[in-house]
Amino acid sequence: MPIKPEHLAQLMREVEQEDPIDFADLPFAEDELRQLVASHLCEMAAAMENFSTEDRLLTLLAVSAKLVLENLVLHVQLLRRHGLPVGDNVEALLSRLRKGDTE
User: Fold this and answer.
1) Do the Cβ atoms of 71 and 77 come closer than 8 Å?
2) What's CA 54's distance to the chain center, in Å?
3) Is the pLDDT of residue 91 over 90?
4) Percent of the chain whose predicted confidence (pLDDT) is above 90
5) What letter would DSSP give residue 31?
6) What confidence tens digit (pLDDT) does each residue in 46-78 have?
7) Rounded distance between C-alpha atoms, residue 52 and residue 54, angstroms
8) Which candidate, 16, 19, 18, places its Cα nearest to that of 34?
9) Which pTM was predicted?
């Protein structure tokens, strides 16, 4: 049974309890943004209906990895734009990447 966007949006809210998103002063309602993203991801998952389980998992991991990378890049760009240092965890990751150590 495919997951419904409303259920996915609720799961997103539950995950955010552990790691809240700073929506700052965006001119959009948080729940509307969650619903938009949830709907898009459910449509994407439905489009993979004929994929094998392995291909579906690999595709979803690739999409997740791209989003995490995009989030990291935007985070570092914002910090630099405001002249703020990156956090220790981000600095450690960037240092590993500079050395070519990806494990």
Assistant:
1) no
2) 21
3) no
4) 52
5) H
6) 999 899 999 999 999 999 999 988 988 888 898
7) 5
8) 16
9) 0.72
